[in-house]
Amino acid sequence: MNAPTSPAVANAAGTADRAERITRIREAAYRIRRNALDMGEVQGQGYIGQALGVADVLAVVYTDQLRYRPEDPHWPDRDRFLLSIGHYAIALYAALAEAGTIPLEELETYGSDDSRLPMSAMASYTPGVEISGGSLGHGLPVATGMALGLRHQGNSARVFNLLSDGELDEGSTWEAAMACAHHGLDNVTAIVDVNALQADGPTAGVLRTEPVTDKWQAFGWHALRVDGNDVAALVDALDELRAHRGSPSVLICDTRIGRGVPLLETREKAHFMRVEEHEWQAARTQLEEGLAR
């Protein structure tokens, strides 16, 4: 007997009520944020702002869209989720724990010696991590090759690639975008987290990338842009992209660093964030208050 797949299959087929889907996803996003805060407290610092900002995107993908088997991360027919921004690993681990691929209690080992959860994602260490991250610009090239391989195998699995707006500075990203469109890889969905910040400062000041949507369209992609912290908008957009055929798709998501925790949303130097010991519980309280509203 085949093991059950994730809930995404039924949802994508339209069998789940939309309001129920959105409620379930929002609750998952809360738990992903809570997981990320718990991991961040282990180190006292890190890329917690990005994890909070992208939690809604990951909740929609893992709760509602991705086809996978938590107990079998290498299932051949799984959809592939590639995290090319390796420093977002804290966010991915939080989502993988929510998905059941990583035991929740293992999150306590984040960034520690001999942990399977290093601070930058490594495919060789962690169940559910498809590629190692680090130098930016590798994710979409790998996604393109992977999607081509799946096509040649006759495998209907989809390939998702989460990348950042800072990663659009990399020429290899745009070379892969051309190749992906040239081959008509409609089994590829890129998701761009536009939080307007990178290591050297605001994205617009480091290298202006706007108009982002127009650029992807010019490269032959079906492109949509939404508020990446609006679960309903994310659901509608990803449903539309799932149905699209003939070209690769990209979802451009405008997110807010620290989303859901007001005391962190306004933090300066938020790319790599230091959080004081007494602030972690306050952050969890604000997060819980936001869920109740």
What overall form do the CA principal axes indicate?
globular
Mean pLDDT comes to 89
The largest sheet is: 5 strands, parallel
- Helix share of residues? 40-55%
Highest-level CATH class: Alpha Beta
Structural class: alpha/beta
- Stretches where pLDDT is under 50 for at least 5 consecutive residues are 10-15
Strand order of the largest sheet: 2-3-4-8-7
Number of E strands: 9
What is the rounded Rg? 18 Å
Please count the helical segments: 11
Rounded to the nearest angstrom, the distance between the terminal CA atoms is 43 Å
Give the second-level CATH assignment, the architecture.
3-Layer(aba) Sandwich
Number of domains: 1
The H-level CATH homologous superfamily, spelled out, is Thiamin diphosphate (ThDP)-binding fold, Pyr/PP domains
CATH topology: Rossmann fold
Strand content: 5-15%
Order of helices and strands: HHEHEHHEHEEEHHEHEHEH
Family: Belongs to the transketolase family.
Keywords: Thiamine pyrophosphate
Protein name: Transketolase domain protein
GO molecular function: magnesium ion binding
